[in-house]
Design brief:
The structure holds 2 protein chains of 2 kinds.
Chain A lengths: L2 H41 L4 H6 L8 H10 L6 H13 L5 E2 L4 E2 H36 L4 H14 L3 H15 L17 H35 L2 H8 L4 H38 L6 H9 L3 H29 L8
Antiparallel strand pairs in A: 1-2
Helix pairs in contact in A: 1-4, 1-12, 5-6, 5-8, 5-10, 6-8, 7-8, 7-10, 8-10, 9-10, 10-12, 11-12
Chain B lengths: L1 H11 L15 E6 L25 E3 L5 E3 L7 E2 L5 E5 L14 H12 L14 E8 L2 E6 L6 H4 L31 E7 L3 E6 L12 E6 L3 H9 L5 E3 L2 H7 L4 E6 L4 E5 L10 H10 L2 H9 L3 E3 L22 H10 L3 E2 L5 E3 L2 E2 L1 E7 L3 H16 L3 E7 L1 H7 L4 E6 L5 H9 L18 H12 L3 H17 L3 E7 L1 E6 L3 E2 L24 E2 L2
Parallel strand pairs in B: 1-10, 1-11, 18-19, 18-20
Antiparallel strand pairs in B: 2-3, 4-5, 5-7, 6-7, 8-9, 9-10, 11-22, 12-22, 13-20, 13-21, 14-21, 15-16, 16-17, 23-24
Helix pairs in contact in B: 1-4, 6-8, 11-12, 12-13
The chains are: A mainly alpha, B alpha+beta.
């Protein structure tokens, strides 16, 4: 057995251990988050019975409202509600969403794929932007591209995604008429790949751009430091082409902290998605989050929060695993 | 932010308006709605005032002020004191799933409406219902707890198949919430929640298959976005605020404004030392500039309101029951009633400053504007009104002691419009039942007679008496009946008929309330 394979095998074991440890850690975190959601919702000033009734509350008699409250279990204490929900989840039953009037599992099945599609596309856009613009800006430091990218990056850091979304609609949809305003398909059309791609373009672009400033500036910064490192100077001294020096020698060193940063950006990405979905009438989970929160809809709210938490945990786990795999110097001991 | 940006681009872009998009035939229609239902279950309030596309009631509204038999074969027959109602049912009707419609379905639907086990949100509308029984497969008998002449107006409730109600459990998880099965002219093909809904004509509809075989309703909550998309020719129609509708309804679109029973009023709590005073109540009614509010806030698209009955319910409307806009008289009354102007311009009587709070739902901009306009009118006669934005939970806890901007309305019967708002017997039975605790023996008596009197001319007279008695001793300030505004494509279909609308609006009501009877123009 050669030392390299032995080394990579112990490396693989270390990564597996890292993953297991994180997963074991995730269980109590998720439990606590879910419990926290129940406590917060219970403390909120909203009375769920108003959401349940809607405008019907205008005609409802106090006695009937009290009956409904009892039937729906709205009077039960928060601990009882949590326990009922928790044991349900353990047995595979996510419960029924009162505000959406259907099982939570169905709400997730219908909406989560669209949210994932938007988020992943947005992330890819952001990463591509970051790598291309960050590298070019650092490579030609002080040039006009660098100055424009840096200035724009700092400006965009301060612009909330929904403002960007409205500007993009004004420009690309209403001004130029290139892309549709909102929705998943044109109003009269059936669901098709072409339609979805056309409607995905603008929201994904907006989400990607709104998330990219941090990434672009970060790539630029780490490229700058890696361009001045010894191995790059060495590569230049050996007379290698500029393209090879930048892409093969400088970029890989700069990539490592970038991967970790992407993991850390996941929470921002989740919030950004919620805002972008609202503006573009994207039929994802965002609308469900708002409805569930104002309706004190415990089962739906808890699951949505868990999905978001799991996304964040998974994001940071993947980033760490990638870091361990990419750079042998990184310890997997956590 | 959203509004200003979208408005800016809306009229700057100068889009041309293409004719019908996508080469669709005139037998399909594409509408946009600003409001998406939570549920399509009639027992959870879907289309509770009728015009439920997926369902039929035993009775249906004719759009003008009368009820016609729908699933009932003929008008219901009441016994002498209007407590026992017998209804013959149509025999030729099937549900969308192919099962036949019969008396069992009617019984199951009405039982579920009043059985607490189902946690229906409309149970209070059927408070008077004691028992419902099938006499034979095509006859149903309703026994009421008290004489109730307006019962046919309650019979617009959509009938669902008995099989779907087999289990007496809360309806939160009912299949009907997202997959309606009814007897109505349209069946649901697809509902992508948050995005759109597709209805297809029911080929076996007992009233004849609709000529417009497919209707797509797209949900877009932002008014300006919807206006923009209509402007670009995308939709065949939508609901919009009046001013925006006027601006969009050009070229191949027209704007229509429908009369409604949808009132906006300010409650005046009886227990409050200022709003409980009869002089203040009448003075506030005289001081409110109703026409001014309608012009400024609704672009003129509203009807001044003085009592709960709008002029559009003309059989029951008492035209003399109104308040003049007369600040001088209001001031004179307040002076005579002992409310003297204080040093800060606000009147006082004894130690009491003439001030009170008017709550409005913070998410409703029209109610906020009305509260502010009312406050300014009240200020003109020396009464200080403080508008306060609240949410539903807070409103419910303060409604007995603070004034609030109320809204609602149902044109099917004057009893629905007046009894729960003004009768003293409903005080304390529900948050929004006579919340300001108005008590007037003459109004009570007239409303009770209206419930018991079967002769329709005499009955109408009682409601007119109730309005006259109310105006002599007002307990709220009714401001306006707001019109509902829509834009619709012209030159494609025949069949549009104006309708008097309830509080509910959107694409189930509006010009499309009878879309099943529309035909394409050739």
């Amino acid at each position: 057995m050669t030392p390299t394979t032995a080394g990579s095998r112990s490396r693989a074991t270390a990564v597996a251990r890292l993953v297991l440890r994180r997963l074991a850690f995730a269980v109590p975190v998720l439990f606590l988050v879910a419990f926290g959601v129940f406590l917060l919702a219970a403390a909120s000033p909203f009375d769920p019975v108003y959401q349940y009734y809607g405008v019907q509350i205008l005609n409802a008699s106090a006695a009937d409202v009290a009956d409904v409250r009892a039937r729906l279990g709205l009077d039960e204490g928060v601990l009882a509600q949590f326990w009922g929900w928790f044991t349900g989840v353990l047995s595979g039953d996510l419960g029924v969403s009162r505000s959406m009037r259907q099982p939570v599992a169905r709400v997730l099945a219908e909406r989560l794929p669209w949210t994932l599609l938007l988020t992943v596309t947005g992330l890819v856009v952001a990463v591509v932007f970051a790598l291309v613009l960050g590298t070019v800006a650092a490579w030609r430091q002080g040039g006009w591209i660098d100055r424009v990218v840096t200035a724009l990056g700092h400006a965009l850091e301060g612009i909330p995604p929904f403002v960007l979304a409205l500007l993009a609609i004004a420009l690309f949809s209403l001004g130029l008429g290139w892309l549709p305003v909102a929705g998943l398909t044109d109003a009269g059309s059936a669901l098709s790949i072409g339609q979805v791609v056309e409607h995905l373009a603008l929201p994904a672009l907006v989400l990607g751009i709104s998330q990219s400033p941090w990434l672009v500036l970060h790539v630029r910064q780490s490229m700058l430091s890696s361009l001045s490192q010894d191995h790059v100077t060495g590569a230049r001294a050996r007379g290698l082409g500029e393209r090879v020096v930048v892409l093969r020698h400088a970029l890989p060193t700069a990539l490592l902290p970038f991967v970790t940063l992407i993991g850390a950006r996941i929470p921002e990405l989740v919030t950004g998605t919620v805002l972008v979905e609202e503006v573009f009438s994207w039929p994802g989970l965002a609308a469900a989050v708002v409805t569930a929160a104002t309706a004190v809809d415990y089962p739906l709210l808890a699951i949505l929060t868990l999905v978001a938490t799991a996304a964040v945990l998974l994001g940071s786990l993947l980033a760490d695993v990638a870091a361990v795999l990419l750079d042998p110097r990184v310890s997997a001991d956590g | 932010m959203t509004t200003s940006l979208a408005t800016l681009t809306l009229f700057g872009a100068g889009c041309s308006v293409p004719s019908k998009p996508g080469g669709d035939g005139a037998d399909s229609m594409l509408l946009a709605d600003g409001y998406e239902p939570d549920s399509l279950n009639p027992l959870l309030g879907y289309a509770h005032a009728g015009a439920a596309k997926f369902y039929d009631g035993l009775m249906a509204f004719d759009g003008k002020g009368s009820l016609l038999p729908a699933l009932a074969a003929e008008p219901p027959v009441a016994d002498e004191d209007a407590r026992r109602w017998t209804v013959k049912l149509r025999g030729d009707v099937t549900f969308h799933d192919g099962t036949p419609f019969d008396a069992e379905d009617v019984v199951a639907t009405y039982r579920a409406a009043i059985d607490p086990a189902y946690a229906s949100t409309i149970s209070s509308n059927f408070d008077m219902l004691d028992r419902v029984e099938a006499l034979d497969p095509h006859t149903v008998r309703f026994d009421l707890k008290y004489p109730y002449v307006p019962w046919p107006a309650r019979m617009v409730l959509g009938i669902v198949p008995a099989e779907k109600l087999a289990e007496p459990a809360p309806l939160t998880n009912s299949e009907l919430n997202t997959k309606p099965v009814g007897t109505g002219p349209y069946q649901l093909v697809e509902w992508r929640q948050g995005e759109r809904m597709v209805w297809r004509g029911n080929p076996d509809y007992w009233g004849g298959a609709p000529a417009i075989g497919e209707v797509t309703v797209v949900f877009a909550t932002d008014d300006n976005t919807r206006a923009q998309r209509v402007r670009s020719g995308e939709f065949d129609g939508t609901v919009l605020p009046p001013v925006l509708a006027e601006r969009v309804g050009t070229d191949s679109y027209r704007t229509v404004h429908h009369d409604t029973a949808d009132y906006r009023a300010i409650t005046l709590p009886s227990t409050h030392p200022v709003t409980g005073d009869p002089t203040v109540r009448t003075a506030l009614n005289l001081a409110a500039n109703r026409d001014g509010m309608i012009d400024a806030l609704l672009g003129g698209h509203g009807i001044p309101g003085h009592t709960p009955i709008p002029p559009s319910m003309d059989r029951y409307h008492e035209p003399t029951a109104r308040f003049a806009f007369d600040r001088k008289r209001a001031k004179g009354m307040l002076d005579a009633g002992g409310w003297r102007p204080g040093p800060d311009g606000v009147r006082r009587r004894g130690g009491q400053r003439a001030e009170f709070t008017v709550m409005y739902f913070a998410d409703d901009s029209l109610r906020k504007q009305l509260a502010v306009a009312f406050a300014s009118d009240a200020g003109e006669v020396g009464i200080e009104v403080r508008p306060a934005g609240v949410d539903r939970t807070e409103a419910a806890s303060r409604i007995g002691t603070d004034a609030i901007v109320l809204g609602g309305g149902n044109p099917l019967d004057p009893d629905l419009q007046m009894y729960d708002s003004l009768h003293s017997s409903v005080i304390g039975t529900g948050t929004y039942n006579n919340p300001a605790q108005y008590r007037n023996a003459a109004v009570d008596a007239a409303l009770d007679r209206g419930r018991h009197t079967t002769d329709s001319a005499r009955r109408a007279r009682y409601y007119k008496q109730a309005q006259t008695a109310y105006v002599a001793d007002p307990g709220l300030v009714y401001l306006a009946f707001i019109q509902h505004s829509y834009v619709m494509r012209t030159g494609a279909w025949n069949g549009y008929e104006p309708v008097i609308e309830p509080h509910t609006h959107g694409t189930t009501w509006g010009p499309w309330w009878n879309v099943e009877d529309w035909t394409p123009q050739r």
